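Complex record, two chains
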Amino acid sequence: MAAYVAGRSAGAARWPTRQDASGSSLIGMDETVVRTDRLTKRYGERLAVDSVSLTVGRGEVYGFLGPNGAGKTTTLRMLLGLVRPTGGRASVLGAAPGSPAALARVGALVEGPGFYPYLSGRDNLRVLCRFRGLGNRAADAALDRVGLGRRGGDRFRSYSLGMKQRLGVAAALLGEPDLLVLDEPTNGLDPAGMADMRRLLVDLAAGGQTVLLSSHLLAEVQEICHRVGVIAGGRLVAQDTVADLRGAGSVLLRAYPLERALAVAVHVAGEDAVEVTDPGLRLDADAAQVPRLVRELVADGVEVLEVRPAERSLEEVFFRMTGPDPAPTTMEVQR
Amino acid sequence: MTALLRSTRAELLRIGRWPALWVLTGTWLTLNVLFVYVFDYVAYLTGDSTGPTSGVPTDELLAGVLPAAVPTSLVQGMPVFGGAILMILGALAAGSGYGWGTWKTTLTQGPGRAAAVGGVLLALAIVVAGVVLGTAVVDLGVSSVLAAVESQPVDLPPAGELAESVGAGLLVLGMWTTAGVLLGTLARSPALAVGLGLVWVLAVENLLRGVSGLLGGLAVLTDHLPGTAAGSLVGALTPGAQGDGGTPGVLTALPGPTALAAVAAYLVAFTAASLLLMRRRDLT
Protein backbone atom coordinates (compact mmCIF):
# COMPACT_ATOMS: atom_id res chain seq x y z
CA MET A 1 0.00 0.00 0.00
CA ALA A 2 2.86 2.32 0.82
CA ALA A 3 4.27 1.70 -2.62
CA TYR A 4 0.90 2.54 -4.11
CA VAL A 5 0.67 5.87 -2.30
CA ALA A 6 4.27 6.68 -3.02
CA GLY A 7 3.84 5.77 -6.66
CA ARG A 8 0.74 7.87 -6.99
CA SER A 9 2.21 10.95 -5.42
CA ALA A 10 5.47 10.62 -7.29
CA GLY A 11 3.67 10.17 -10.55
CA ALA A 12 1.07 12.82 -9.92
CA ALA A 13 3.57 15.59 -10.36
CA ARG A 14 4.16 14.52 -13.92
CA TRP A 15 0.60 13.75 -14.88
CA PRO A 16 -1.24 16.43 -16.77
CA THR A 17 -3.79 18.29 -14.74
CA ARG A 18 -7.32 18.98 -15.88
CA GLN A 19 -6.18 22.45 -16.82
CA ASP A 20 -3.44 20.94 -18.98
CA ALA A 21 -5.97 18.65 -20.55
CA SER A 22 -8.16 21.47 -21.76
CA GLY A 23 -5.22 23.14 -23.48
CA SER A 24 -5.23 22.65 -27.20
CA SER A 25 -1.43 22.49 -27.40
CA LEU A 26 -1.36 19.23 -25.43
CA ILE A 27 -4.20 17.66 -27.33
CA GLY A 28 -2.71 18.62 -30.64
CA MET A 29 -5.96 18.27 -32.50
CA ASP A 30 -4.32 19.57 -35.64
CA GLU A 31 -3.18 16.02 -36.38
CA THR A 32 -5.62 13.16 -36.04
CA VAL A 33 -4.10 9.75 -35.40
CA VAL A 34 -7.29 7.72 -35.26
CA ARG A 35 -10.52 8.66 -36.95
CA THR A 36 -13.62 6.53 -37.28
CA ASP A 37 -16.71 7.48 -39.19
CA ARG A 38 -19.90 5.63 -38.25
CA LEU A 39 -17.90 2.48 -37.62
CA THR A 40 -20.28 -0.44 -37.18
CA LYS A 41 -19.99 -4.14 -36.42
CA ARG A 42 -22.97 -6.44 -36.51
CA TYR A 43 -22.90 -10.10 -35.46
CA GLY A 44 -26.11 -11.54 -36.88
CA GLU A 45 -28.93 -9.75 -35.12
CA ARG A 46 -26.69 -8.19 -32.51
CA LEU A 47 -25.23 -4.76 -33.11
CA ALA A 48 -21.93 -4.86 -31.22
CA VAL A 49 -20.70 -1.45 -32.36
CA ASP A 50 -23.20 1.06 -33.68
CA SER A 51 -22.04 4.02 -35.78
CA VAL A 52 -19.11 5.01 -33.61
CA SER A 53 -17.36 8.19 -34.78
CA LEU A 54 -14.37 9.09 -32.69
CA THR A 55 -11.11 10.95 -33.14
CA VAL A 56 -7.83 10.66 -31.32
CA GLY A 57 -5.26 13.43 -31.73
CA ARG A 58 -1.50 13.07 -31.80
CA GLY A 59 0.13 12.96 -28.38
CA GLU A 60 -3.16 12.43 -26.57
CA VAL A 61 -3.94 9.85 -23.92
CA TYR A 62 -7.47 8.96 -24.97
CA GLY A 63 -9.58 6.97 -22.56
CA PHE A 64 -12.15 4.64 -24.00
CA LEU A 65 -14.77 3.86 -21.39
CA GLY A 66 -17.78 1.64 -21.24
CA PRO A 67 -19.36 -1.21 -19.29
CA ASN A 68 -18.53 -4.83 -20.13
CA GLY A 69 -19.93 -5.79 -23.50
CA ALA A 70 -20.41 -2.16 -24.55
CA GLY A 71 -18.30 -2.62 -27.68
CA LYS A 72 -14.93 -1.23 -26.55
CA THR A 73 -12.83 -4.25 -27.44
CA THR A 74 -14.66 -4.84 -30.72
CA THR A 75 -13.96 -1.23 -31.71
CA LEU A 76 -10.28 -1.60 -30.81
CA ARG A 77 -10.11 -4.88 -32.76
CA MET A 78 -11.54 -3.13 -35.80
CA LEU A 79 -8.90 -0.41 -35.48
CA LEU A 80 -6.22 -3.13 -35.51
CA GLY A 81 -7.69 -5.03 -38.46
CA LEU A 82 -8.48 -8.12 -36.39
CA VAL A 83 -12.20 -7.69 -37.00
CA ARG A 84 -13.72 -6.48 -40.23
CA PRO A 85 -16.31 -3.70 -39.84
CA THR A 86 -19.74 -4.26 -41.33
CA GLY A 87 -20.20 -0.55 -41.88
CA GLY A 88 -18.51 2.83 -41.64
CA ARG A 89 -14.91 3.78 -42.15
CA ALA A 90 -11.78 4.19 -40.09
CA SER A 91 -8.26 5.41 -40.57
CA VAL A 92 -5.28 4.80 -38.31
CA LEU A 93 -2.21 6.98 -38.82
CA GLY A 94 -3.59 7.89 -42.21
CA ALA A 95 -3.81 4.28 -43.40
CA ALA A 96 -6.48 1.59 -43.47
CA PRO A 97 -6.86 -0.15 -40.09
CA GLY A 98 -4.94 -3.40 -40.02
CA SER A 99 -2.84 -2.53 -43.07
CA PRO A 100 0.87 -3.29 -42.69
CA ALA A 101 1.58 0.45 -43.11
CA ALA A 102 -0.62 1.30 -40.12
CA LEU A 103 0.41 -1.64 -37.92
CA ALA A 104 4.11 -0.93 -38.43
CA ARG A 105 3.54 2.21 -36.32
CA VAL A 106 1.06 0.75 -33.84
CA GLY A 107 1.71 -1.26 -30.69
CA ALA A 108 -1.24 -3.10 -29.23
CA LEU A 109 -2.40 -5.10 -26.25
CA VAL A 110 -5.96 -6.29 -26.81
CA GLU A 111 -7.98 -8.39 -24.42
CA GLY A 112 -5.12 -9.86 -22.48
CA PRO A 113 -1.60 -10.81 -23.49
CA GLY A 114 -1.25 -13.60 -26.08
CA PHE A 115 2.12 -15.34 -25.93
CA TYR A 116 3.68 -18.77 -26.43
CA PRO A 117 3.54 -20.36 -22.96
CA TYR A 118 6.60 -22.55 -23.51
CA LEU A 119 8.88 -19.65 -24.52
CA SER A 120 10.52 -17.25 -22.10
CA GLY A 121 9.27 -13.68 -21.97
CA ARG A 122 12.41 -12.59 -23.80
CA ASP A 123 12.03 -15.20 -26.55
CA ASN A 124 8.40 -14.26 -26.99
CA LEU A 125 9.46 -10.67 -27.60
CA ARG A 126 12.25 -11.83 -29.91
CA VAL A 127 9.68 -13.66 -32.01
CA LEU A 128 7.72 -10.42 -32.30
CA CYS A 129 10.93 -8.51 -33.10
CA ARG A 130 11.45 -10.83 -36.06
CA PHE A 131 7.95 -10.07 -37.33
CA ARG A 132 8.75 -6.37 -37.12
CA GLY A 133 12.24 -6.67 -38.55
CA LEU A 134 13.83 -5.47 -35.29
CA GLY A 135 16.97 -6.77 -33.61
CA ASN A 136 16.99 -8.68 -30.33
CA ARG A 137 18.07 -5.55 -28.44
CA ALA A 138 14.60 -4.09 -28.87
CA ALA A 139 13.23 -7.03 -26.85
CA ASP A 140 15.66 -6.40 -23.98
CA ALA A 141 14.89 -2.68 -23.96
CA ALA A 142 11.14 -3.34 -23.83
CA LEU A 143 11.57 -5.85 -20.98
CA ASP A 144 13.59 -3.32 -18.99
CA ARG A 145 11.01 -0.65 -19.60
CA VAL A 146 8.25 -2.68 -17.91
CA GLY A 147 10.50 -3.95 -15.12
CA LEU A 148 10.76 -7.54 -16.38
CA GLY A 149 14.45 -7.49 -17.27
CA ARG A 150 15.46 -9.92 -14.55
CA ARG A 151 12.59 -12.35 -15.19
CA GLY A 152 12.91 -12.22 -18.98
CA GLY A 153 14.50 -15.68 -19.12
CA ASP A 154 11.60 -17.41 -17.34
CA ARG A 155 8.93 -19.19 -19.25
CA PHE A 156 5.79 -17.17 -19.94
CA ARG A 157 3.62 -19.86 -18.35
CA SER A 158 5.38 -19.35 -15.02
CA TYR A 159 4.58 -15.63 -14.93
CA SER A 160 2.01 -14.15 -12.56
CA LEU A 161 -1.03 -12.40 -14.04
CA GLY A 162 0.61 -9.04 -13.51
CA MET A 163 3.87 -10.11 -15.16
CA LYS A 164 1.96 -11.46 -18.16
CA GLN A 165 0.24 -8.11 -18.44
CA ARG A 166 3.56 -6.27 -18.26
CA LEU A 167 4.95 -8.47 -21.01
CA GLY A 168 1.90 -7.58 -23.10
CA VAL A 169 2.66 -3.91 -22.66
CA ALA A 170 6.34 -4.56 -23.42
CA ALA A 171 5.27 -6.18 -26.69
CA ALA A 172 3.18 -3.13 -27.52
CA LEU A 173 6.22 -0.90 -26.94
CA LEU A 174 8.45 -2.74 -29.45
CA GLY A 175 9.70 -0.47 -32.18
CA GLU A 176 8.65 2.78 -30.48
CA PRO A 177 5.23 2.91 -32.14
CA ASP A 178 3.48 6.22 -32.74
CA LEU A 179 0.20 4.85 -31.44
CA LEU A 180 -0.36 2.48 -28.54
CA VAL A 181 -3.70 0.70 -28.34
CA LEU A 182 -4.04 -0.75 -24.86
CA ASP A 183 -7.10 -2.65 -23.74
CA GLU A 184 -7.30 -2.71 -19.95
CA PRO A 185 -3.51 -2.49 -19.50
CA THR A 186 -3.70 -2.47 -15.70
CA ASN A 187 -5.66 -5.74 -15.48
CA GLY A 188 -4.09 -8.04 -12.94
CA LEU A 189 -1.54 -5.50 -11.72
CA ASP A 190 -1.06 -4.82 -8.03
CA PRO A 191 -1.38 -1.21 -6.81
CA ALA A 192 2.33 -0.51 -7.26
CA GLY A 193 2.19 -2.03 -10.73
CA MET A 194 -0.81 0.12 -11.60
CA ALA A 195 1.00 3.23 -10.47
CA ASP A 196 4.03 2.22 -12.56
CA MET A 197 1.81 1.65 -15.56
CA ARG A 198 0.16 5.05 -15.19
CA ARG A 199 3.56 6.70 -15.04
CA LEU A 200 4.69 4.78 -18.09
CA LEU A 201 1.64 5.87 -20.09
CA VAL A 202 2.08 9.50 -19.14
CA ASP A 203 5.78 9.33 -20.03
CA LEU A 204 4.92 7.84 -23.39
CA ALA A 205 2.45 10.63 -24.10
CA ALA A 206 5.00 13.20 -22.98
CA GLY A 207 7.41 11.68 -25.49
CA GLY A 208 4.91 12.29 -28.30
CA GLN A 209 3.38 8.83 -28.49
CA THR A 210 -0.38 8.64 -28.68
CA VAL A 211 -2.18 6.27 -26.33
CA LEU A 212 -5.66 4.88 -26.88
CA LEU A 213 -6.58 3.19 -23.65
CA SER A 214 -9.66 1.33 -22.57
CA SER A 215 -10.27 0.88 -18.90
CA HIS A 216 -12.83 0.15 -16.25
CA LEU A 217 -10.83 2.07 -13.68
CA LEU A 218 -12.39 5.48 -13.94
CA ALA A 219 -10.25 7.16 -11.31
CA GLU A 220 -7.24 6.08 -13.32
CA VAL A 221 -8.67 7.40 -16.56
CA GLN A 222 -9.62 10.65 -14.84
CA GLU A 223 -6.04 11.10 -13.75
CA ILE A 224 -4.13 10.27 -16.90
CA CYS A 225 -6.41 10.82 -19.89
CA HIS A 226 -6.74 14.06 -21.78
CA ARG A 227 -9.94 13.10 -23.50
CA VAL A 228 -12.39 10.25 -23.15
CA GLY A 229 -14.99 8.56 -25.28
CA VAL A 230 -17.82 6.81 -23.47
CA ILE A 231 -19.44 3.85 -25.23
CA ALA A 232 -22.63 2.17 -24.05
CA GLY A 233 -24.70 -0.41 -25.88
CA GLY A 234 -22.37 -0.10 -28.88
CA ARG A 235 -22.93 3.64 -29.27
CA LEU A 236 -20.53 6.45 -28.47
CA VAL A 237 -22.59 8.47 -25.99
CA ALA A 238 -20.00 11.13 -25.25
CA GLN A 239 -16.59 12.30 -26.36
CA ASP A 240 -14.96 15.21 -24.65
CA THR A 241 -12.13 16.31 -22.40
CA VAL A 242 -12.31 14.88 -18.91
CA ALA A 243 -12.79 18.41 -17.53
CA ASP A 244 -15.75 19.17 -19.76
CA LEU A 245 -17.37 15.82 -19.09
CA ARG A 246 -17.16 16.36 -15.35
CA GLY A 247 -18.73 19.75 -15.86
CA ALA A 248 -17.98 23.15 -14.37
CA GLY A 249 -17.68 23.62 -10.66
CA SER A 250 -20.64 22.67 -8.55
CA VAL A 251 -21.77 23.11 -4.98
CA LEU A 252 -22.96 20.38 -2.67
CA LEU A 253 -25.66 21.37 -0.17
CA ARG A 254 -26.96 19.35 2.73
CA ALA A 255 -29.92 21.02 4.42
CA TYR A 256 -33.22 20.25 6.17
CA PRO A 257 -36.01 20.08 5.15
CA LEU A 258 -34.94 19.01 1.69
CA GLU A 259 -38.05 20.23 -0.17
CA ARG A 260 -37.66 23.82 1.00
CA ALA A 261 -33.93 23.74 0.42
CA LEU A 262 -34.60 22.51 -3.12
CA ALA A 263 -37.01 25.37 -3.78
CA VAL A 264 -34.44 27.94 -2.61
CA ALA A 265 -31.64 26.27 -4.56
CA VAL A 266 -33.73 26.33 -7.74
CA HIS A 267 -34.46 29.98 -7.13
CA VAL A 268 -30.77 30.80 -6.75
CA ALA A 269 -29.15 28.54 -9.36
CA GLY A 270 -31.95 27.93 -11.87
CA GLU A 271 -34.24 25.00 -12.49
CA ASP A 272 -31.89 22.93 -14.66
CA ALA A 273 -28.93 23.47 -12.38
CA VAL A 274 -30.07 21.49 -9.35
CA GLU A 275 -29.84 17.78 -8.93
CA VAL A 276 -30.86 15.56 -6.04
CA THR A 277 -27.98 13.25 -5.16
CA ASP A 278 -27.25 10.80 -2.43
CA PRO A 279 -25.67 13.16 0.10
CA GLY A 280 -27.93 16.13 -0.67
CA LEU A 281 -28.40 18.65 -3.49
CA ARG A 282 -25.84 19.39 -6.16
CA LEU A 283 -26.01 22.82 -7.73
CA ASP A 284 -24.23 23.74 -10.93
CA ALA A 285 -23.03 26.99 -9.44
CA ASP A 286 -19.73 28.61 -8.67
CA ALA A 287 -18.45 29.66 -5.27
CA ALA A 288 -19.51 33.28 -5.78
CA GLN A 289 -23.15 32.24 -5.48
CA VAL A 290 -22.68 30.50 -2.12
CA PRO A 291 -23.16 33.56 0.16
CA ARG A 292 -26.48 34.41 -1.51
CA LEU A 293 -27.57 30.79 -1.34
CA VAL A 294 -26.84 30.53 2.37
CA ARG A 295 -28.54 33.89 3.10
CA GLU A 296 -31.72 32.81 1.33
CA LEU A 297 -31.73 29.39 2.94
CA VAL A 298 -31.38 30.88 6.43
CA ALA A 299 -33.97 33.55 5.68
CA ASP A 300 -36.35 30.78 4.63
CA GLY A 301 -35.82 28.89 7.88
CA VAL A 302 -33.90 26.03 6.32
CA GLU A 303 -31.30 24.41 8.54
CA VAL A 304 -28.01 24.32 6.66
CA LEU A 305 -25.88 21.32 7.57
CA GLU A 306 -23.12 21.61 4.96
CA VAL A 307 -22.21 23.70 1.93
CA ARG A 308 -19.05 22.86 0.03
CA PRO A 309 -17.65 23.00 -3.46
CA ALA A 310 -17.87 19.62 -5.20
CA GLU A 311 -16.73 18.21 -8.49
CA ARG A 312 -18.34 15.27 -10.17
CA SER A 313 -16.00 12.35 -10.42
CA LEU A 314 -15.72 10.77 -13.82
CA GLU A 315 -17.34 7.74 -12.23
CA GLU A 316 -20.50 9.69 -11.43
CA VAL A 317 -20.62 11.07 -14.96
CA PHE A 318 -20.02 7.61 -16.36
CA PHE A 319 -22.85 6.01 -14.42
CA ARG A 320 -25.22 8.78 -15.40
CA MET A 321 -24.41 8.12 -19.05
CA THR A 322 -24.30 4.37 -19.06
CA GLY A 323 -26.35 3.22 -16.09
CA PRO A 324 -29.86 1.82 -16.45
CA ASP A 325 -31.13 4.15 -13.74
CA PRO A 326 -29.86 7.69 -14.24
CA ALA A 327 -30.02 10.12 -11.31
CA PRO A 328 -33.45 11.79 -10.90
CA THR A 329 -33.83 15.28 -12.28
CA THR A 330 -35.12 18.30 -10.41
CA MET A 331 -38.48 17.95 -12.08
CA GLU A 332 -38.92 14.37 -10.95
CA VAL A 333 -38.20 15.27 -7.31
CA GLN A 334 -40.62 18.19 -7.38
CA ARG A 335 -43.40 15.93 -8.54
CA MET B 1 8.20 -10.71 -49.73
CA THR B 2 10.02 -9.08 -46.82
CA ALA B 3 6.99 -9.69 -44.63
CA LEU B 4 6.95 -13.37 -45.59
CA LEU B 5 10.64 -13.77 -44.79
CA ARG B 6 10.22 -12.00 -41.45
CA SER B 7 7.22 -14.18 -40.58
CA THR B 8 9.11 -17.32 -41.51
CA ARG B 9 12.08 -16.32 -39.31
CA ALA B 10 9.72 -15.57 -36.43
CA GLU B 11 7.82 -18.83 -36.81
CA LEU B 12 11.05 -20.82 -37.10
CA LEU B 13 12.22 -19.35 -33.78
CA ARG B 14 9.03 -20.24 -31.93
CA ILE B 15 8.49 -23.63 -33.59
CA GLY B 16 12.15 -24.57 -33.16
CA ARG B 17 11.95 -23.98 -29.41
CA TRP B 18 8.64 -25.78 -29.05
CA PRO B 19 8.97 -29.01 -27.06
CA ALA B 20 6.03 -30.41 -29.07
CA LEU B 21 8.19 -30.31 -32.23
CA TRP B 22 10.96 -32.37 -30.66
CA VAL B 23 8.58 -34.81 -29.00
CA LEU B 24 6.77 -35.44 -32.29
CA THR B 25 9.83 -35.70 -34.51
CA GLY B 26 11.59 -37.83 -31.89
CA THR B 27 8.59 -40.14 -31.80
CA TRP B 28 8.64 -40.49 -35.57
CA LEU B 29 12.36 -41.27 -35.73
CA THR B 30 12.03 -43.81 -32.91
CA LEU B 31 9.07 -45.54 -34.56
CA ASN B 32 10.94 -45.56 -37.86
CA VAL B 33 14.03 -47.21 -36.37
CA LEU B 34 11.97 -49.68 -34.33
CA PHE B 35 9.66 -50.86 -37.10
CA VAL B 36 12.06 -50.72 -40.04
CA TYR B 37 15.23 -51.98 -38.37
CA VAL B 38 14.97 -53.25 -34.79
CA PHE B 39 12.01 -55.63 -35.12
CA ASP B 40 13.07 -57.03 -38.51
CA TYR B 41 16.67 -57.45 -37.42
CA VAL B 42 15.62 -59.20 -34.19
CA ALA B 43 13.37 -61.50 -36.25
CA TYR B 44 16.31 -62.19 -38.57
CA LEU B 45 18.66 -62.95 -35.65
CA THR B 46 16.25 -65.20 -33.75
CA GLY B 47 14.67 -66.80 -36.78
CA ASP B 48 11.33 -66.27 -35.05
CA SER B 49 8.66 -66.38 -37.71
CA THR B 50 5.71 -65.12 -35.63
CA GLY B 51 4.28 -61.60 -35.91
CA PRO B 52 4.27 -59.36 -38.97
CA THR B 53 7.42 -60.92 -40.37
CA SER B 54 5.98 -64.45 -40.39
CA GLY B 55 6.69 -66.26 -43.60
CA VAL B 56 9.30 -63.76 -44.75
CA PRO B 57 12.51 -65.55 -45.71
CA THR B 58 15.47 -64.56 -43.52
CA ASP B 59 17.56 -63.31 -46.45
CA GLU B 60 14.73 -60.95 -47.35
CA LEU B 61 14.61 -59.75 -43.75
CA LEU B 62 18.31 -58.99 -43.89
CA ALA B 63 18.06 -57.29 -47.29
CA GLY B 64 15.35 -55.01 -45.87
CA VAL B 65 17.66 -53.57 -43.22
CA LEU B 66 20.65 -52.95 -45.50
CA PRO B 67 21.53 -49.54 -47.06
CA ALA B 68 20.27 -50.54 -50.52
CA ALA B 69 16.73 -50.75 -49.10
CA VAL B 70 16.73 -47.20 -47.68
CA PRO B 71 14.57 -45.75 -50.52
CA THR B 72 11.83 -48.17 -49.44
CA SER B 73 12.34 -48.04 -45.70
CA LEU B 74 12.44 -44.23 -45.70
CA VAL B 75 8.90 -43.72 -46.99
CA GLN B 76 6.94 -46.84 -46.12
CA GLY B 77 5.84 -45.53 -42.72
CA MET B 78 4.96 -42.06 -43.98
CA PRO B 79 1.45 -42.45 -45.45
CA VAL B 80 -0.07 -43.34 -42.09
CA PHE B 81 2.29 -43.00 -39.11
CA GLY B 82 4.59 -40.22 -40.27
CA GLY B 83 1.61 -38.46 -41.80
CA ALA B 84 -0.39 -38.65 -38.57
CA ILE B 85 2.52 -37.24 -36.56
CA LEU B 86 3.12 -34.33 -38.95
CA MET B 87 -0.63 -33.73 -39.16
CA ILE B 88 -0.61 -33.31 -35.36
CA LEU B 89 2.24 -30.79 -35.67
CA GLY B 90 0.39 -28.80 -38.33
CA ALA B 91 -2.84 -28.79 -36.31
CA LEU B 92 -1.01 -27.69 -33.16
CA ALA B 93 0.95 -24.99 -34.99
CA ALA B 94 -2.18 -23.42 -36.46
CA GLY B 95 -4.78 -24.26 -33.82
CA SER B 96 -2.92 -23.40 -30.61
CA GLY B 97 -2.66 -19.75 -31.60
CA TYR B 98 -6.39 -19.29 -31.00
CA GLY B 99 -6.31 -20.50 -27.40
CA TRP B 100 -3.03 -18.78 -26.57
CA GLY B 101 -4.08 -15.56 -28.29
CA THR B 102 -0.87 -15.60 -30.32
CA TRP B 103 -2.58 -15.19 -33.69
CA LYS B 104 -3.92 -11.88 -32.40
CA THR B 105 -0.43 -10.87 -31.24
CA THR B 106 1.16 -11.97 -34.50
CA LEU B 107 -1.31 -10.15 -36.72
CA THR B 108 -1.00 -6.89 -34.78
CA GLN B 109 2.73 -6.90 -35.63
CA GLY B 110 1.65 -6.05 -39.17
CA PRO B 111 2.83 -8.91 -41.37
CA GLY B 112 -0.52 -9.09 -43.16
CA ARG B 113 -2.72 -12.17 -43.03
CA ALA B 114 -1.21 -13.96 -46.02
CA ALA B 115 2.38 -13.46 -44.87
CA ALA B 116 1.49 -14.54 -41.33
CA VAL B 117 0.00 -17.84 -42.49
CA GLY B 118 2.70 -18.14 -45.15
CA GLY B 119 5.32 -17.87 -42.43
CA VAL B 120 3.79 -20.78 -40.53
CA LEU B 121 3.57 -22.86 -43.70
CA LEU B 122 7.14 -22.11 -44.79
CA ALA B 123 8.51 -22.81 -41.31
CA LEU B 124 6.64 -26.12 -41.29
CA ALA B 125 7.94 -26.88 -44.78
CA ILE B 126 11.46 -26.49 -43.42
CA VAL B 127 10.55 -28.82 -40.55
CA VAL B 128 9.17 -31.39 -43.02
CA ALA B 129 12.34 -31.18 -45.10
CA GLY B 130 14.38 -31.65 -41.93
CA VAL B 131 12.31 -34.67 -40.90
CA VAL B 132 12.60 -36.37 -44.32
CA LEU B 133 16.32 -35.69 -44.71
CA GLY B 134 16.97 -36.54 -41.05
CA THR B 135 15.14 -39.84 -41.46
CA ALA B 136 17.18 -40.62 -44.57
CA VAL B 137 20.41 -39.92 -42.69
CA VAL B 138 19.34 -42.03 -39.69
CA ASP B 139 18.23 -44.89 -41.97
CA LEU B 140 21.48 -44.80 -43.96
CA GLY B 141 23.46 -44.76 -40.71
CA VAL B 142 21.61 -47.60 -39.01
CA SER B 143 21.57 -49.76 -42.14
CA SER B 144 25.31 -49.21 -42.71
CA VAL B 145 26.06 -50.25 -39.14
CA LEU B 146 23.92 -53.38 -39.57
CA ALA B 147 25.67 -54.16 -42.88
CA ALA B 148 29.03 -53.87 -41.16
CA VAL B 149 27.90 -56.03 -38.23
CA GLU B 150 26.59 -58.69 -40.63
CA SER B 151 29.75 -58.46 -42.78
CA GLN B 152 27.65 -57.43 -45.78
CA PRO B 153 28.90 -55.00 -48.41
CA VAL B 154 27.73 -51.41 -47.69
CA ASP B 155 26.03 -50.84 -51.05
CA LEU B 156 24.42 -47.41 -50.98
CA PRO B 157 21.17 -47.11 -52.96
CA PRO B 158 21.27 -45.40 -56.38
CA ALA B 159 21.05 -41.63 -55.94
CA GLY B 160 18.05 -41.44 -58.30
CA GLU B 161 16.02 -43.88 -56.24
CA LEU B 162 16.92 -42.11 -53.02
CA ALA B 163 15.99 -38.74 -54.51
CA GLU B 164 12.63 -40.11 -55.69
CA SER B 165 11.98 -41.44 -52.24
CA VAL B 166 12.94 -38.18 -50.55
CA GLY B 167 10.68 -36.29 -52.99
CA ALA B 168 7.74 -38.59 -52.27
CA GLY B 169 8.38 -38.25 -48.52
CA LEU B 170 8.36 -34.45 -48.80
CA LEU B 171 5.07 -34.53 -50.68
CA VAL B 172 3.35 -37.02 -48.41
CA LEU B 173 4.43 -35.42 -45.13
CA GLY B 174 3.88 -31.96 -46.61
CA MET B 175 0.34 -32.90 -47.56
CA TRP B 176 -0.48 -34.20 -44.07
CA THR B 177 1.13 -31.16 -42.43
CA THR B 178 -0.97 -28.75 -44.49
CA ALA B 179 -4.03 -30.91 -43.73
CA GLY B 180 -3.24 -30.36 -40.05
CA VAL B 181 -2.85 -26.60 -40.56
CA LEU B 182 -6.22 -26.48 -42.34
CA LEU B 183 -7.90 -28.50 -39.58
CA GLY B 184 -6.35 -26.28 -36.88
CA THR B 185 -7.54 -23.21 -38.77
CA LEU B 186 -11.04 -24.60 -39.26
CA ALA B 187 -11.44 -25.80 -35.68
CA ARG B 188 -9.68 -22.78 -34.09
CA SER B 189 -8.52 -25.25 -31.49
CA PRO B 190 -5.67 -27.76 -31.39
CA ALA B 191 -7.53 -30.50 -29.52
CA LEU B 192 -10.49 -30.76 -31.87
CA ALA B 193 -8.25 -30.53 -34.94
CA VAL B 194 -5.85 -33.22 -33.73
CA GLY B 195 -8.71 -35.50 -32.70
CA LEU B 196 -10.57 -35.20 -35.97
CA GLY B 197 -7.39 -35.53 -38.00
CA LEU B 198 -6.26 -38.67 -36.23
CA VAL B 199 -9.67 -40.31 -36.57
CA TRP B 200 -9.53 -39.58 -40.28
CA VAL B 201 -5.95 -40.75 -40.88
CA LEU B 202 -6.09 -43.86 -38.73
CA ALA B 203 -9.68 -45.04 -39.13
CA VAL B 204 -12.11 -43.30 -41.43
CA GLU B 205 -10.21 -43.72 -44.70
CA ASN B 206 -9.69 -47.42 -44.03
CA LEU B 207 -13.37 -47.88 -43.23
CA LEU B 208 -14.42 -46.01 -46.36
CA ARG B 209 -12.14 -48.16 -48.50
CA GLY B 210 -13.74 -51.18 -46.84
CA VAL B 211 -17.26 -50.18 -47.92
CA SER B 212 -16.32 -48.69 -51.28
CA GLY B 213 -17.51 -51.84 -53.08
CA LEU B 214 -21.07 -51.37 -51.82
CA LEU B 215 -21.88 -48.36 -53.96
CA GLY B 216 -21.07 -47.94 -57.62
CA GLY B 217 -18.65 -45.09 -58.14
CA LEU B 218 -17.71 -44.84 -54.46
CA ALA B 219 -14.41 -46.61 -55.13
CA VAL B 220 -13.34 -43.82 -57.49
CA LEU B 221 -13.89 -41.36 -54.66
CA THR B 222 -12.20 -43.43 -51.96
CA ASP B 223 -9.22 -44.17 -54.23
CA HIS B 224 -8.57 -40.45 -54.48
CA LEU B 225 -8.80 -39.59 -50.76
CA PRO B 226 -5.62 -38.08 -49.26
CA GLY B 227 -4.43 -41.13 -47.33
CA THR B 228 -5.12 -43.49 -50.22
CA ALA B 229 -3.31 -41.21 -52.67
CA ALA B 230 -0.34 -40.91 -50.32
CA GLY B 231 -0.32 -44.70 -49.80
CA SER B 232 -0.43 -45.28 -53.56
CA LEU B 233 2.43 -42.84 -54.19
CA VAL B 234 4.58 -44.66 -51.67
CA GLY B 235 3.32 -48.03 -52.98
CA ALA B 236 4.53 -47.12 -56.48
CA LEU B 237 8.06 -46.61 -55.13
CA THR B 238 8.20 -49.57 -52.75
CA PRO B 239 7.31 -52.79 -54.51
CA GLY B 240 6.75 -55.49 -51.92
CA ALA B 241 5.84 -53.14 -49.08
CA GLN B 242 2.12 -53.12 -49.89
CA GLY B 243 -0.60 -55.69 -49.39
CA ASP B 244 -1.18 -58.25 -46.62
CA GLY B 245 1.76 -58.45 -44.29
CA GLY B 246 3.15 -55.25 -45.79
CA THR B 247 3.30 -51.83 -44.17
CA PRO B 248 -0.14 -50.49 -43.19
CA GLY B 249 -1.27 -47.68 -45.47
CA VAL B 250 0.99 -48.59 -48.40
CA LEU B 251 -1.36 -49.25 -51.31
CA THR B 252 -1.68 -49.79 -55.04
CA ALA B 253 -5.10 -48.18 -55.44
CA LEU B 254 -3.80 -45.55 -57.88
CA PRO B 255 -0.99 -45.68 -60.45
CA GLY B 256 2.12 -43.71 -59.42
CA PRO B 257 1.66 -40.58 -61.59
CA THR B 258 -2.01 -40.24 -60.64
CA ALA B 259 -1.14 -40.63 -56.97
CA LEU B 260 1.61 -38.04 -57.33
CA ALA B 261 -0.80 -35.57 -58.94
CA ALA B 262 -3.47 -36.20 -56.29
CA VAL B 263 -1.07 -35.71 -53.36
CA ALA B 264 0.32 -32.51 -54.90
CA ALA B 265 -3.22 -31.26 -55.57
CA TYR B 266 -4.21 -31.88 -51.93
CA LEU B 267 -1.11 -30.08 -50.71
CA VAL B 268 -1.95 -27.03 -52.83
CA ALA B 269 -5.65 -27.16 -51.92
CA PHE B 270 -5.04 -27.44 -48.16
CA THR B 271 -2.56 -24.55 -48.33
CA ALA B 272 -4.89 -22.37 -50.37
CA ALA B 273 -7.88 -23.11 -48.12
CA SER B 274 -5.89 -22.23 -44.98
CA LEU B 275 -4.74 -18.95 -46.52
CA LEU B 276 -8.23 -18.09 -47.70
CA LEU B 277 -9.81 -18.82 -44.32
CA MET B 278 -7.31 -16.70 -42.45
CA ARG B 279 -7.60 -13.81 -44.88
CA ARG B 280 -11.34 -13.53 -44.40
CA ARG B 281 -11.79 -14.38 -40.77
CA ASP B 282 -12.49 -12.10 -37.80
CA LEU B 283 -10.19 -12.73 -34.87
CA THR B 284 -12.47 -12.31 -31.88
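Note: The longest strand of chain A covers residues 32-43.
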